[in-house]
Amino acid sequence: MKERELRRRCRKLLKQLDIGPPLDVEVLCARLGDQRGKPIRLMPYPLEVPGPFGCWIATSSADYIFYQAETTKSHQDHIILHELGHMLADHHPHGDAEPADFLRGPAPDLDPDAVHRALRRTSYDDAHEWEAETVATIILEWASVLNYTIPRRAADRDLRRIQGALGDHQGWL
Q1: Longest dimension (CA), the chain
Q2: Are strands 63-68 and 40-45 parallel, antiparallel or unpaired?
Q3: Which of 72, 70, 75, 63 is nearest to 48 (CA)?
Q4: From CA 20, how far away is CA 143, in angstroms rounded?
Q5: Between 109 and 62, whose confidence is greater?
Q6: Which tens digits make up the pLDDT trace of 99-131?
Q7: 56 close to 29: Cβ distance less than 8 angstroms
Q8: If we measure between CA atoms, which residue out of 4, 147, 28, 19 comes closest to residue 87?
Q9: Which phi and psi angles does 114 have, rounded to 5°?
């Protein structure tokens, strides 16, 4: 998928989910989970270094995003958005990674086969990784531009209506 198409998908998604500045990754995940019909569970985890920083595990009842617990908040947000990028680009797991290569110690109550299938994603080809990384970058760039240029939504209902009438705040996205 080309960058232009990724930008179009991101813009459409952010509008559909009514995501505005300041970006809250947890709110984005909650709304995307509602749209997908199953929750997205964010799972901070002390991942082995070196190794992947995050992993998306899809089950029939929920999507789990494991991400490095031992890093900065901004890096965690980027990792989560990268994994969301795989969802938005319709990537499917493949490869040969073993769960033990990724998760050390007790894992949440997940089917080991589901974990195994999802962790195969560590061998995505470069095009899939580029797409996921581009989605994360597009959303973070959008947020960083608008977080500083768009005032926070007013608490007053009438003032919010005026703010809404003054334009679409999707920035350059």
Answers
A1: 56
A2: parallel
A3: 70
A4: 8
A5: 62
A6: 444 455 444 556 666 555 555 445 456 888 888
A7: no
A8: 28
A9: -65, -40
Domain boundary assignment for the chain = 3-161
CB 53 within 8 A of CB 71: yes
Burial class of 20 by CB neighbour count within 10 A (0 to 12, 13 to 18, 19+): buried
Q: 19, 27 in Cβ contact below 8 A?
A: yes
In angstroms, rounded to a whole number, what is the distance separating the alpha carbons of residues 43 and 41?
6
* DSSP 8-state assignment for residue 22: S
Separation between Cα atoms, residue 119 and residue 115, nearest integer Å: 6
Q: 68 forms bridges with which residues in the sheet?
A: 45
Is the model's pTM score more than 0.85?
no
Given a contact cutoff of 8 angstroms between Cβ atoms, the answer to whether 37 and 58 are in contact is no
Quick: pLDDT tens for 125-156.
Answer: 688 888 888 888 888 887 766 555 555 566 77
**Which DSSP symbol is given to 39?**
-
> What helix, strand, coil percent values describe the chain, rounded to 5?
55, 10, 40
- What SS3 state is found at 45? strand
Q: Is the pLDDT of residue 40 over 90?
A: yes
